[in-house]
Amino acid sequence: MELGISTFGEVHADGVSGKAVNAHVRMQELIAEGKLADEVGLDVFAVGEHHRPDFIISAPEVALAAIAAVTKNIRLSSSVTVLSSADPVRTFQNFATLDLISNGRAEIMAGRGSFIESFPLFGYSLDDYNELFVEKLDLLTKINQSEIISWRGKFRASIHQLGVYPRPIQEALPIWLAVGGTPASAVRAGKMNLPMTLAILGGRPSQYVSFVNLYKQSYKEAGHDPAKFQLGINSQFYIADTSQQAEDEFWPSYEKLMNRVGKERGWSPITREHFEYLCMPDGPLFVGSPQQVIEKILYQADLFGHTRFLAQMVKGDIPHAKIMKAIELFGTQVAPAVRKALKVAQ
Q1: Strand intervals (E) in 79-195
Q2: Hey, which residues does 110 pair with through a beta bridge?
């Protein structure tokens, strides 16, 4: 199983048109986090696209290029690229450039996105939410497969026998499909032979077993090679030396994040009691001591048989030094134990 870090780059909004000090500091922190993740032997570092004042990553490939310059081995992925409101040609070109910079470590995680700010920003209608994604995913995969393409769609100008450059150093860019639980998305990923990453941010993980099985079934029925099957799980995460320390340090930032987003979406305010329920061994939050996180990863490995786990960092008001400590514990204590246990189990 590959083990990695995912982040949206939460930031305290500067609220200015220039001299964005908080944004500058947070970007330097992200680069340091990616560097440390590489140094402690993690497999993946992923940054997700948003277009909001409270998240700093609107151009994942640019941030990843900076991280590529200070790392050697770790794979560099978006988590997510909001493909519905992006141009697949530019998306491919940007990530192919990242691939050349990083010596073949670039990946794209394509998704619709759980926020909708990018649609009006780039002139798209939410009425076309599904059609946009399907069409743009089709174009992106075709560009990835062929240097010269001809393509016709509804939302973008047609392409006739044109090349898309540069090409990556990898044979092809790995394109993962990021999903949140829509059955059609699981079927699409399986049929298209695309690795799938499932975000489990709420609800019991066991509730997603049938969803994962749908992906596996569609993958198998499409005749794809079982040896190349890939499935990722993405969940929110924080580690400290003890479970009580982890929960106490993580809760204030988690409460602010969930209630800020929840207010926009009409959710009830989250309580500490509910938070602690989510931290239980069969809950979705990976918040606890190294041993608790090890046990939860192995528990979900039995549930899903996944090949990648991405630990989604939520920084909020947590000091950067503590975030770095959590990454260090993940790489030096959790990852070796998980790899050893899974190797023994095989």
Answers
A1: 81-82, 106-111, 148-151, 159-163, 175-179
A2: 81, 177
